[in-house]
Amino acid sequence: QVQLVESGGALVQAGGSLRLSCAASGSAFSSYSMAWFRQTPEKERDFVVSISRGGNTYYADSVQGRFTSSRDNVKNTLTLQMHSLKPEDTAVYYCAATVKSAGYHGAGWYEYWGQGTQVTVSS
Fold first, then answer.
1. pLDDT digit string (tens) for 9-31?
2. For residue 2, what is the DSSP state?
3. Tell me: the pLDDT tens digits for 33-78?
4. pLDDT at residue 26, rounded to an integer
5. Does residue 114 have a pLDDT over 90?
6. 113 with 5: CB under 8 angstroms?
7. DSSP 116
8. Hey, what's the torsion of the CAs at 7, 13, 15, 17, to 10 degrees?
């Protein structure tokens, strides 16, 4: 099993930037495909980006060109760099892991989850 802990959430103004991190422990990080999801109280957990074991990325249309995800298989860390933030990006952001492949998959694809970190974008 892998344990995931997100950090970096904050209150930021629209147009600003924020960097989220997900620290993994307990198992071989490099053997997992990873992803970021986000959720608001009104909606289901939405896909943001997934990243393969080798670093290939798959972005949701809503964040393409604004968000960048990367992983460090030595430091066991997943990051999400967010630019040009909008109020609609406000959500709890979750890090997720799966032993299956990366790609455009919903939340049910992933076996392991962090506790989430709150991102609030003010207008």
1. 999 999 999 999 999 998 799 99
2. -
3. 999 999 999 889 999 999 999 999 999 999 999 999 999 999 999 9
4. 85
5. yes
6. no
7. -
8. -20
Query: In whole angstroms, what is the distance from residue 66 CA to residue 109 CA?
Result: 24
Residues in Cβ contact with 9 at an 8 Å cutoff, skipping those fewer than 6 apart: 18, 20, 92, 93, 117, 118, 119, 120
C-alpha span between 6 and 77 (Å, rounded)? 10
Position 71, amino acid: R
Three-class SS string for 4-72?
A: EEEECCCEEECCCCEEEEEEEECCCHHHCEEEEEEECCCCCCEEEEEECCCCCEEECCCCCCCEEEEEE
CA nearest neighbour of 16 among 81, 102, 100: 81
